[in-house]
């Protein structure tokens, strides 16, 4: 998520998107976004935003860090990182690919030169689109992409950066920044539609103000009201963009997961959902394990399943599995207008 060295080894909601490919109607999943979906692209960049070190990966088969900010254990291979495939002369993109990059935001100014920006991810995908058209033929490529799912998780880093730098921002200033993000997002989503995206799964921004990193900045360790308010504004506006596009393009179908509303349940009522700790990170150093990133030198909790957060930005595997279940076959107000299972069946 945010621009820091810390990254998670946990499975996150975005990886639920891979489960839909088990259905015959979904031949591939094309993934865009930030660290919630980065499966190793940043390993190929000169950047500190990586996850290829312990204790990351400790819950992954073999217990070895793979460079995934998010991993999945849903019985289906993850869409491989684009930068690992693009170096091959016979790269195969038919089974899906992930362009996601830890640190990315809607704005190109977010973590500049430390990640693959969302605009750059779309540019890379345009090359994949052309490659599929050459290898499959335009008609078959169009059919393939129409059945595939385009999974997107983007916006958290933009909001985190803004909230950290503008803690005293007024509601109107917050809205102005969100409006600017949405203007960019609208064009980005339209570009993906123009390049064949017809089934879109959009993961809304979570309650980033309640991440250990932003809590730690408060003397009373409360959530950042600025960040959480902006997350709500952003998710609502993103839904407006998608519903507007669907009205304009009847062949476009989408599911939006409001991870802010979904995750706040666990944060506000942890015991009800089986959690013991909803404020501090499992892995890290310093106050709330949120002063220093989760690195090989960091301490980590004995029972990762009773923590909501793995590190100072990302949820634990336990949290992610619960969010995954909601996204896959849940209903409004958390996933709408349809869920992932229903989207995959179209």
Structure characterization notes:
GO terms for molecular function: hydrolase activity, acting on ester bonds. Keywords: Hydrolase, Lipid degradation, Lipid metabolism, Signal. It holds the Pfam family Lipase_GDSL. With 346 residues, this protein is an alpha/beta fold. It has a single domain, classed as Rossmann fold, CATH 3.40.50. Helices cover 37% and strands 11% of the residues. The protein has helices at 16-19, 82-85, 118-136, 138-147, 156-165, 171-194, 212-216, 225-248, 259-268, 317-329, 340-345, and strands at 29-33, 96-98, 149-153, 199-203, 253-257, 277-281, 283-284, 299-300, 307-309, 335-336. A six-stranded mixed β-sheet has the order 2-1-3-4-5-10, sandwiched between helices. A two-stranded parallel sheet has the order 6-9. It has a two-stranded antiparallel ribbon with strand order 7-8. Helix 2 (82-85) links the parallel strand 1 (29-33) and strand 2. The longest helix has 24 residues, at 171-194. The chain is globular, with a radius of gyration of 19 Å. The relative contact order is 0.16. Residues 1-14, 44-58 and 60-76 have low confidence and may be disordered.
List the helices and strands and how they pair.
Layout (H helix, E strand, L loop, with lengths): L15 H4 L9 E5 L48 H4 L10 E3 L19 H19 L1 H10 L1 E5 L2 H10 L5 H24 L4 E5 L8 H5 L8 H24 L4 E5 L1 H10 L8 E5 L1 E2 L14 E2 L6 E3 L7 H13 L5 E2 L3 H6 L1
Parallel strand pairs: 1-2, 1-3, 3-4, 4-5, 6-9
Antiparallel strand pairs: 5-10, 7-8
Helix pairs in contact: 3-4, 5-8, 6-8
GO molecular function, one term: hydrolase activity, acting on ester bonds
InterPro entries: GDSL, GDSL_Est/Lipase, SGNH_hydro_sf, SGNH_plant_lipase-like
Protein name: GDSL esterase/lipase
